[in-house]
Design a protein that fits this description.
It is built from 9 helices and 5 strands, in the order E-H-E-E-H-E-E-H-H-H-H-H-H-H. The chain has 258 residues and is α+β, with helices and mostly antiparallel strands. It has a 5-stranded antiparallel beta sheet, covered by helices on one side. Helix 2 crosses helix 5 and helix 4 crosses helix 5. The radius of gyration is 20 Å and the shape is globular.
């Protein structure tokens, strides 16, 4: 990098995606740069993450927690798009070009909120991010909308029947609260819940503990990969309608549940 910025993270992950982002337009919320060795005039895999959310911070621990949060949102939307997407990981943190120690991730759930920028720049950034990678658009919404935030956070955690069941319940509750309709195939839902609830089908990943089956279970089971596709399709349905609603002024860009 030619010039050091105040805070930036070294990244591990899918360098193909990172290179595309680095060569594209700057994203204030989640800006990935690098991929070029200026000294040797060639490409490399040195990619860095910077964000407007880091700019006002002076403590490395706070920047680490914000970085973890941004990475979680990115990984969540990436998982919705593809179960096999490689996770983005924060490798090291630089402060004015100097490495600082790593801080463990804390279990904090909170919207990042509107960044400390002018209203005009805030509006410009939103208009710009609509045309960037869909990951960045959804992440932008998830900084201020609690529904988008929760959906992305659930998809960032480990894939399991239990976590997918929580995600399904969350999506159905969000739909009731926001009025954003979701389409849920009843047969697939029954197959999923039957598997997720049944120890004989999902083992230790079952929502219920060991129980001896009293009768033959004739409901079709669902593989974990199929469960991902089922739940992700519902999430996409919700998020697409949410995005269209925000763009067309039907839904507010900022939203917190009562």
């Amino acid at each position: 990098m030619a010039n050091a910025v105040k805070w930036e993270f070294y990244l591990n992950g899918d360098s193909r995606n990172f290179r595309g982002y680095a060569e594209g337009r700057k994203n204030l919320y989640f800006d990935i740069s690098g991929g070029i060795d200026h000294y040797n005039d060639c490409m490399n895999d040195d990619f860095r993450l910077s964000s407007v959310y880091f700019d006002d911070e002076d403590e490395p621990e706070v920047v680490w927690q914000i970085g973890y949060e941004l990475a979680s949102l990115y990984n969540g939307v990436s998982s919705i798009l593809s179960k096999d997407s490689r996770k983005l990981e924060l490798a090291e943190l630089l402060h004015n070009g100097v490495r600082v120690g790593k801080t463990p991730k804390k279990n904090i759930l909170a919207l990042l909120g509107k960044p400390n920028i002018s209203d005009s720049l805030y509006n410009q950034e939103f208009e710009k991010v609509k045309k960037l990678d869909v990951r960045f658009f959804m992440m932008n919404l998830a900084t201020e909308r609690e529904d988008a935030y929760l959906i992305l956070k659930y998809f960032a955690v480990e894939a399991s029947y239990i976590n997918y069941y929580k995600t399904l319940e969350t999506l159905e509750e969000l739909s009731d609260k926001t009025g954003i309709a979701i389409s849920v195939d009843k047969k697939l839902r029954k197959s999923f819940t039957n598997t997720a609830n049944n120890f004989t089908l999902s083992g230790l990943d079952s929502r219920h503990g060991f129980k001896q089956a009293l009768k033959e279970n004739k409901t079709p089971s669902m593989k974990l990969s199929e469960a991902h596709l089922f739940i992700a399709s519902i999430a996409k349905d919700y998020l697409n309608k949410l995005a269209d609603g925000v763009i067309n002024g039907i839904h507010k860009k900022s939203y917190k549940m009562d």
